[in-house]
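Example for tutorial group B:
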């Protein structure tokens, strides 16, 4: 139980040398589900993009490759994640194409109507107030901008992990939502054109919503 608690804490907010190791490891472990999720949205070359809960910054570098004339920000509330993401993206930061920020989804350090696209990979289930986090992201999106939430576990998926999680996950403070509950989460926060895509056999989910154009 102690081991589960340690690894849960490290995924929620990586810290110390173990957190550093875990964050580097997540960069490769989450790469496939990230590519799958990103394949459901389109980023334009000049887009301004934010990756919330950026961890070790691999998604930030993927997004920078798809928006070569744009700017990508990564944000994470763990100083270890921020340090690793800065190291991985050092060259892009030097070129002024990437910025990595320490901060929380609850209070994003960006003005209203800033981003064309916001992504969040394997992180939303940890946010302290998920509906408030969704509304805070909506604030920083430009009208017509898109939020994509990507995860490799959801309630109702046909995987052993999802079935196990259904019994135990609430004990570790993780939110565990079904595809329909994800749809409701987007709609209740005020997103339009909500689309939920799942790959049930793998347990993957991608939720997409837009900020209404004014
Ligand atoms: C499981 S890791 C995923 C990291 C990365 N997105 C990836 O796919 O490898 C979750 C990350 O979300 C961050 N995180 C969790 N809650 C957060 C919050 N409220 N605000 C900002 N970052 C948060 C954690 O610090 C951690 O780096």
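The residue assignment follows.
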């Amino acid at each position: 139980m102690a081991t589960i608690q340690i690894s849960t804490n490290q995924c929620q907010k990586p810290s110390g040398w173990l957190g550093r190791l875990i964050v580097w490891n997540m960069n490769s472990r989450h790469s496939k589900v990230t590519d799958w999720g990103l394949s459901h949205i389109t980023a334009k070359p000049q887009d301004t993009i934010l990756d919330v809960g950026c961890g070790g910054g691999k998604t930030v570098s993927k997004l920078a490759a798809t928006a070569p004339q744009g700017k990508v920000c990564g944000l994470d509330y763990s100083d270890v994640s921020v340090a690793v993401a800065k190291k991985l993206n050092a060259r892009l930061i030097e070129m002024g194409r990437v910025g990595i920020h320490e901060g929380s989804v609850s209070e994003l350090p960006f003005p209203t109507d800033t981003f064309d696209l916001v992504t969040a990979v394997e992180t939303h289930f940890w946010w302290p107030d998920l509906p408030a986090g969704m509304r805070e992201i909506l604030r920083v999106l430009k009208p017509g901008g898109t939020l994509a939430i990507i995860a490799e576990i959801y309630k109702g998926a046909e995987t052993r992990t999802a079935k196990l999680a259904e019994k135990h996950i609430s004990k570790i403070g993780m939110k565990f939502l079904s595809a329909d509950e994800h749809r409701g989460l987007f709609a209740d926060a005020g997103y339009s054109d909500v689309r939920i895509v799942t790959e049930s056999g793998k347990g993957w989910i991608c939720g997409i919503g837009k900020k209404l154009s004014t």
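The chain has one domain: 2-210. Compare this with the pattern of hydrophobic and polar residues in the output above.
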